[in-house]
Every structure is written in C-alpha cells, then in structure tokens.
Amino acid sequence: MADDCYSCRQESDLAAAAPSERVHLTEYWRAAHAFNSSLPGWLILLPRRHVTSIAELTPAEAAELGPLVHQLSETLHAVLRCTKPYVVQFAEAEGFAHVHFHLVPRMPDLPSDHRGPRVFHYLTRPESEWLTLDERNDIAVALSAHLRSG
Ligand SMILES: [Zn+2]
User: Fold this and answer.
1) Spacing, Cα 34 to ligand 1 middle (Å)
2) Total domains present in the chain
3) Of 13, 42, 52, 72, which one has the fewest beta carbons inside 10 Å?
4) What DSSP letter does each residue of the chain carry, written as one string?
C-alpha cells in the first residue's frame, strides 16, 4: 500500500466503493470503470497490491492476467458491442504509478482521428464531459452481470 496511490486508496475501502470501482474482483486483480473517462466502458485492470512494473508481478498474479484480459475483452464485446478492445499499460501519471491496464472498447463508430493511441482523447477531457458516477455504475453493473454469468 502506498499512501499517495489512488489505486491503493480505492482498494483499501472496497466494501464502501461504488460498483464502478469493482466491476470484477479476483484474488489478485480488480477491474474498475475509469473515473475520468468520457467514453462508456473504459475499464482499468489493476493488481490488488502496489506494484509499479509488470516485472514485479508474482507468477500467480501473472497467471491470472491473460485469462482476465480475455474474459474482460469478451465481456466488452458482448455487452457494449465494441469492434475490439484496446489494451494499454503505461502507469506514468502523477499518483498513478500503480500498474494498470486500460481496456478500451473500440466502438464501430470511433472517429478515425481518435483511433489507436489517440483514443486517450477520451481520458483527457474536462470533468464536465466525464461520465457521471451513475452512468459508470450502470455500465459496471451490466458488465459484472455478464462476467458472473460467463
Ligand atoms: Zn498502489
């Protein structure tokens, strides 16, 4: 646990957290809806302890990762009808060094100038354009239901 880490603070209070902060929980990983996204269904997949490089994952944590990325991707396809999910990991922003994978639903109508790395357009909009907590929670509940049924 790192005190200055947003991800660890969320993890430490999961019982009280909104559905958007716990789309999916496994022994070693948590999926959440990005709080600062203006694109519905932008997921963050992160280890449940503080690590700042994928190289620090234990074999058990690493073993869960591949199947989870696949399961979450299948869910984004099934629930949101995306063309494919993008998967990105940088962990460079101040206070966000905790390893986290972005799983971004690339929708069929995504404008060509926001494809590929430029999809981060949707994570850098002013707060007034972010999805509301209610919107994030609704998506989280739908994704969770699909994950449980799978
Ligand atoms: Zn952390």
Assistant:
1) 15
2) 1
3) 13
4) --TT-HHHHHHHTGGG--GGG-SEE-SSEEEEE-TT-SSTT-EEEEESS--SSGGG--HHHHHHHHHHHHHHHHHHHHHH--SEEEEE----STT--S--EEEEEE-TT--GGGSGGGGGGGGSS-GGGSPPHHHHHHHHHHHHHHHHH-
